[in-house]
Design a protein that fits this description.
The protein is mainly β. Helix content is 5%, strand content 44%. The model has no long low-confidence stretch (mean pLDDT 88).
Length: 125
């Protein structure tokens, strides 16, 4: 069954535009099917994956039940204020060897897209 988690970032556009390179912001932890996750954003790049002046959203695993070593997930990222939507399948999310504990979107967003949203709250789903 699908689950949706929304993260509202107050004054998000200004927060992103004023972030230093490599900064990571974390949402609250949320649960789905006994697994705990959180969202991360890298608002101004993150070495070596995301270049400076680009924004990316990530889903990270906080905790899995013992019987889960890894899992396949379907990610649906959206930022309504930018009409941004992306769906991605990630087959190895977890803590087992060869797995990633987080999965980012494939399409990074140029940071200057947030210029028109100054002083606005940003919602990430």
């Amino acid at each position: 069954a699908a689950s949706t988690h929304s993260w509202k970032i107050n004054d998000g556009a200004n927060t992103f535009l004023n972030s230093e390179y490599g900064r990571v912001l974390h949402s609250d932890v949320f649960e789905h099917s006994g697994c705990k996750f959180y969202l991360e954003i890298t608002p101004n790049g993150y070495a070596p994956q995301i270049p400076k002046n680009y924004f990316c959203v990530w889903l990270a695993v906080k905790e899995l039940p013992k019987e889960f070593g890894s899992m396949a997930v379907r990610l649906n990222f959206s930022i309504p204020q930018l009409n941004y939507n992306e769906t991605k399948i990630h087959n190895k999310l977890g803590f087992d060897p060869g797995c990633a504990f987080s999965a980012g979107c494939d399409r990074v967003i140029p940071l200057d897209k947030f210029q028109t949203l100054k002083n606005e709250d940003i919602t990430i789903n």
